[in-house]
DNA sequence: AAGAAAATGATTGACGTGTTTCTTTTTCCG
DNA sequence: CGGAAAAAGAAACACGTCAATCATTTTCTT
């Protein structure tokens, strides 16, 4: 039989449907002997519960919360949009997503929210620990996005930031051929785990045998475009030998503006996240490489993982391979 | 109402459930006026049929066929495995996949197969046109994978091969810095559309202003490792100035063997598809870059598209962004 | 062995849609 | 106006599971 039902299982086990159901759904009150017989029948028949029928019956819906920092941050907003778009696309599966601001712990939405799973974007913001505690308190499982967090969580969806850093390092080395150079890393803050990991990854490759590149001490710009512009400008003036820039975090508008003003002979620039700004900068040869973590895919995987958890399964491993964009391989604008 | 049912629609339209059903499923025998009223109600309530309930009711299953060239071709076999694995993962959605050999037109499987949708891997093989005719004949919709095909098909899932070629070109330019060089393209056959597109993409970038690279005439090796090795060996001996190789198709075991034997001072090598061989070669510094079209993702998108078509929807656009792998950013071995 | 407790069986009505059959109402046409 | 045809309604069963209730049987306890 291609698709045995629970009735078939019950028959094969020599018990009633009720008993099979009690075993399957762990309702208790079943003799050990019967449990074994049912489980064996499940094994032998290769029974798998029809999730569609089950969800239909229990009027199941998937209510997910995503705690996403708000504000002027291109990547986060596009991740938010991708999440909402994905939820819309899965409306037939009764998936809904609520975006929450982690920095407002007493958010009304959060008060009333009854969620089946939550996702935390792992920037070490103030409210996040509080949110985690609250979720644990209420027994709501959580995964992390973008950057991992220590603590009890059920899975991580996002890129491997160390690998991303290594990628940047490799690209910088490629761009320098056999020549020497000085690379300036710019990041939001050293206290952010994802930034630190990227920096470490890059450092590893730049320090490897055969490299004639030097990684300078990182500049912290707190993801702010103006600060990015000022600090970077100062650093470039102070050290005329800088041949490469690795922008690890956000605030790249400031970097791009500087490159635009800078004239020819600019350093080789690698940065993260494909946004309208960075895309335009690539096209205009103001920067060289964009490493993108593909918010759309990340959103899809995040919902997959949260759904699996809500269904009581193990979330699938979801390490996203970041995309590398040059001027020449930009994706077509979706029609 | 969050999730209106067809009953709700019927009530809102002031007709019976039967009539609403007749309109929804286009069974005919409904007055134009009623059709309009029902459709308006669907619009206003934002009704969407619950596909799970619908599938449950009609005992729906998704039976897909994939026509995949067999034989000693790492990528195709990993794509095949990925497809089967994906089907297994979606067993709960009643998805099943049958792999067929396009070069055996009288295959027993193919004879008896009743499929809801098919996928054709678009290598211009002999049997493929016949398969397409057969499918059209039977009214089975089809999509293309890996390489597009002209003709009546409902969608394409895979990478943009022209963009992939441009990517290779850009990487080769990067690797040469401002220096000059001669690039040797190696491909299966110029009659294969995907190979041609990749070559064109690379040519475009290598011929762009500022480039000091020359793209040599392509060598055809018909995806065979020994031929790859022989032809490539001959070409490298004939032209000592070759500084880069772009391997567009398969048969890379021959290339890798040659690089291994070749000693130091080898050219910069870009090739396609991450396989155990190419991975090992990257790790051992025998080649430099692998452009991968991610068979697992391709399989997932292919099933998404086929399912959408089987459900009578428009398949989602699925242009996959190829991954670029260096030695430094190889994905971890899945645990 | 009687009674309590535990285990099991039997049955029922959802969930939202598909599908069929049969009846009733409306519309059309000569 | 009468009859046929078209349109609409009503009802039932199915799909596989969940969840609850109630009746029955088995097992355990004293």
UniProtKB/TrEMBL annotation, chains A, B:
Record InterPro entries: HTH_LacI, Lambda_DNA-bd_dom_sf, Peripla_BP_I, SBP_2_dom
Keywords: DNA-binding, Transcription, Transcription regulation
Span of domain HTH lacI-type: 4-58
An example molecular function term from Gene Ontology annotations: DNA binding
Keyword Transcription: yes
PANTHER family xref list: LACI-RELATED TRANSCRIPTIONAL REPRESSOR (PTHR30146), TRANSCRIPTIONAL REGULATORY PROTEIN (PTHR30146:SF152)
UniProt protein name: LacI family DNA-binding transcriptional regulator
Organism: Paracoccus benzoatiresistens
Lineage: Bacteria, Pseudomonadati, Pseudomonadota, Alphaproteobacteria, Rhodobacterales
